[in-house]
Design goal:
single chain; 169 residues; mainly beta; Thrombin, subunit H; 5-stranded antiparallel β-sheet; 4-stranded antiparallel β-sheet; 12% helix; elongated
Length: 169
């Protein structure tokens, strides 16, 4: 079955940065990456490149920053009062926090720590970088109704009979 909208895809990937440095490898985890195709679970350029591929396919995909995590936006670097981080301990460059932004929660990275101010960067850590993925498609199946309602694959452990009952026609 080729990859198309409303399908759950399982794959292994190896991600390399613009300098060829290994950034991530799904084989180092307990399970492959699973996503619901057409529901923005992965970066747009990668999803587009995977459309039409089938289990057993191996491909290399090179993405520009705009196809991956976007260009860096210097407006997303801001100074915040140190008191906004509470009294919970030491702050250090590279620490990541969840912050409330105008569009909802957003991850920020501390890039500088001063006595009264902390500089945070809300850009994705891979923003502005061209990326290369080496992919192996492992499995493609129709999503269940519950998965479509949630917008992502459900955790393993759903009883097969329950999955069959919820499949979309």
């Amino acid at each position: 079955m080729p990859i198309a909208l409303q399908q759950v895809v399982s794959l292994h990937y190896t991600l390399y940065g613009p300098d060829g440095r290994l950034l991530d490898d799904s084989r180092r985890r307990d399970a492959p990456l699973r996503y619901l195709h057409g529901h923005d679970n992965i970066v747009a350029g990668l999803e587009q490149a995977l459309s039409g591929h089938a289990p057993g396919d191996r491909l290399t995909v090179e993405l520009s920053p705009g196809q991956a995590y976007g260009e860096r936006d210097e407006a997303l670097i801001q100074d915040v009062a140190r008191s906004a981080f509470g009294q919970g301990g030491e702050l250090a460059t590279g620490m990541r926090f969840q912050a409330q932004g105008p569009d909802g929660p957003r991850a920020v990275t501390i890039v500088a720590v001063g006595e009264t101010q902390v500089t945070v960067d809300a850009n994705h850590p891979l923003a502005g970088q061209a990326l290369r993925y080496e992919l192996e498609v492992l499995d493609v199946r129709s999503a269940t109704r519950a998965e479509l309602a949630k917008g992502h694959p459900l955790e393993d452990g759903v009883e097969p009979a329950q999955v069959e009952d919820r499949k979309m026609p």
